[in-house]
Amino acid sequence: MAIAGDSTAEQAPDTVPHELPEESRGSPDQPDHGETNEVDFEEEDGDAEEQDGPAAYGERERAVFRRMYGEPVGIRVHDIIIEGNFKTRDELIEAEVADLLRSAGTVQDLVRASSLASALLRRLDVFESVCITLDAGPPELPGTANVLIEVVEAGTFGGFDFGYYSRAQARSGSLKGSLKLRNLFGYGDIWKASGAYGWDQSSEIGIGVSLPRLKSIPTPLTARASVLSQDWLALSSYKERLLGLSFGLLSTRHHDLSYDLTGRTLSDPTQMASKSIRRQLGHNLLSALRYTYKIDQRDSELRPTKGYAFVSTSQLGGLWDRKGLRFFRQEFDVRGAVPFGFYNAALNLGISAGVILPLGRGFMELSSPVPDRFYLGGRSSPVCSLGRLSSLLGFETRGVGPSEPRRFVPSGSAADDSAASPGRDYLGGDLAVSAFADLSFDLPIKLFKDAGIHGHAFLSAGNLAKLSESEYKNFSFPEFRRTFRSSAGIGIVVPTNLFRLELNYCYILKKCEHDRGETGIQFSISVP
Fold first, then answer.
1. What residues form DSSP beta bridges with 294?
2. Cβ neighbours of 501 (radius 10 Å)
3. Beta strand 157-165 with 174-182: parallel, antiparallel or unpaired?
């Protein structure tokens, strides 16, 4: 019996057998195996046995199918044969699918397992096609099957991407390019090199590798080295340079565990930083463990119309290095989408909260790291920024929350000194809460509707508070609630396969002194 498992994405879960080798036909001399159901090609109708030719063969084949799909047929996998893998190692393929195939106890289970095994191998992204064929085992071992896995390996070059992106923590967009190489060493390894440059003079260069599994470790492993430079002089009077390594230790459907080892340098070439910023300038080492739990049951990341999502991210800094940055950071994000049943309208609701606390003796008297604090504002859409507490439409990036006047540096002219204002540094918050409501709906124009272009009305609110350096003594929930910033607006959304493009009119409902937010037109590109 031979069963071919198609490798295309349209493959049905239950692949129908279609080829029967001659040696698999039964004979009257075969012994009876008792209660065990095995594939038997004996024709129940005695008259059919005397017939020859394609008609008789087809009738016997249909009889086998009726029996196979009518009752469980016992079977055992005798051997797994792999062909076509010139670079990919046998042990990688066997580790992915061998246990799954050998666990099947009936023909029906084996057909389903073959379909799933084909999907698992295609997911490695190193094969152009995968074909799994089930054949009869050796004649001396009745009730067994051999599994033949035929693969066609994909080329080494995995593609080059180039585009314009906007991140939640960035003041403006950036140009980003990436190069992908695959299966260089035969372990299903995927290599990615990327570079990005932002209009705010931020830049990033990185290279990473991911392995689907390493020996007995069943989960994918990733490693990445990167150099990141960001310019926050206009908002917080410092430049940030990061040189680090990141290791993905666990990655499943709902769980993600990673470790970061990063050298961070903060500098102020203007020498105008506020007192709080000056205390944190210099070099620090960040050794942190990050755990993320995620559930996302929404029908879309760019325009959800139903479902819910929840993300919890915990970060512990200061592992194995008591002289480095030590803190605990926790974020929660809850989303829900409710359809209305007309004009494809849906209401998206979300609430996010986060807290960061320094660690050590007398921790509430210590200061939390400024780059790791929470910031609100920016142009990222709150609808597709799951797990990122930063969106507050209408306000500039880092334009909300605690701030401090910069140091005044006198110039040579007394007239210039009297008119000049050093500005303020935005320091972020140790406690942050934000919420939004977004009503999306189709526009009554067929051209827009066919293209997915739709309208939306939104309401967003949020606030920040400082708790470290003994500021928790001045914190009160009534005051925190009273100083919530909020905005509302309406706009047009153009979704694509990669990002969400928005043109919004934002109206500031409430802001506090020193906040940077204005009523007007806002343009944004957001990536999930």
1. 311
2. 17
3. antiparallel
